[in-house]
């Protein structure tokens, strides 16, 4: 259950990052509310997952999901630039997530 909550927390991190961008510096109400609600839910699920997962594993995977997911959303939804170096960096993040999961012992 902790892993499911951790993945959900990471997905919510992608959601709130996207809506933070859409809030235009918290000047638009609806995206701002979605950002804050997403943050709260993401942190809550992360906290729940950390009750049984090691701090380093949980936090690294949570931030990795958020970083890689925000990268993909930026490219696919927001039309941000793609370059070989950015793709390599995203691949390294995903590799780190996989290695952290494999070494977590849970």
UniProtKB/TrEMBL annotation:
GO terms (BP aspect): xenobiotic detoxification by transmembrane export across the plasma membrane
Keywords: Cell membrane, Membrane, Transmembrane, Transmembrane helix, Transport
Entry superkingdom: Bacteria
Chain segments annotated as transmembrane: 27-49, 61-79, 85-102
InterPro entries: EmrE-like, Small_drug/metabolite_transptr, Small_multidrug_res
Protein localization: Cell membrane
Xref: Gene3D superfamilies: 1.10.3730.20
Alphabetical list of Pfam families matching this protein: Multi_Drug_Res (PF00893)
Primary site of residence: membrane
One GO MF term attached to the UniProt entry: transmembrane transporter activity
Mode of membrane association: Multi-pass membrane protein
Gene Ontology CC entries for this record: plasma membrane
Family (UniProt): Belongs to the drug/metabolite transporter (DMT) superfamily. Small multidrug resistance (SMR) (TC 2.A.7.1) family. Gdx/SugE subfamily.
Protein name per the record: Guanidinium exporter
């Amino acid at each position: 259950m902790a892993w499911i909550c951790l993945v959900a927390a990471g997905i919510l991190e992608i959601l709130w990052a996207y809506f933070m961008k859409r809030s235009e510096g918290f000047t638009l109400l609806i995206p701002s509310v979605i950002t804050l609600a997403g943050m709260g839910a993401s942190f809550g699920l992360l906290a729940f997952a950390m009750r049984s997962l090691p701090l380093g594993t949980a936090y690294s995977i949570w931030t990795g999901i958020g970083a890689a997911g925000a990268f993909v959303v930026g490219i696919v939804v927001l039309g941000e630039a793609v370059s070989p170096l950015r793709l390599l960096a995203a691949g390294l993040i995903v590799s780190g997530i996989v290695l952290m999961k494999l070494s977590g012992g849970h």
